[in-house]
Hints:
The protein contains two helices and nine strands. The protein is α+β, with helices and mostly antiparallel strands and 127 residues long.
Amino acid sequence: MRIEHVAAYVNDLEKARDFFVEFLNGTSNGGYHNQNTGFRSYFISFEDGARLELMNKPGMAEEVKSPDRTGYAHLAFSVGSKEKVDELTKRLKAAGYEVLSGPRFTGDGYYESCIVAIEGNLIELTV
């Protein structure tokens, strides 16, 4: 068994899609739009087969996203090396994204950084 995809609601669908395409080498489909409900989505595919569905619909509730909340904490992307974690973290910071932590070695031996990315959602970059 494997996770087929993870989905997230966002306010700015195109900005979210562009983030995952530009910074994390995702490939977007052409999108879906249900004319009756206003629901829209994009599937972002990554080279290892993982997929992320970004969704939007009218009337979504916007709530504060504390890093220490219940539910999903972050999406983690393995970029292949310590140097690539450093490079992408620096690139995201230069693009105006907040670096919440790292790059650093964690107590359990991972090398990672954590970025406050799309609409307060956290992205972890790791080897």
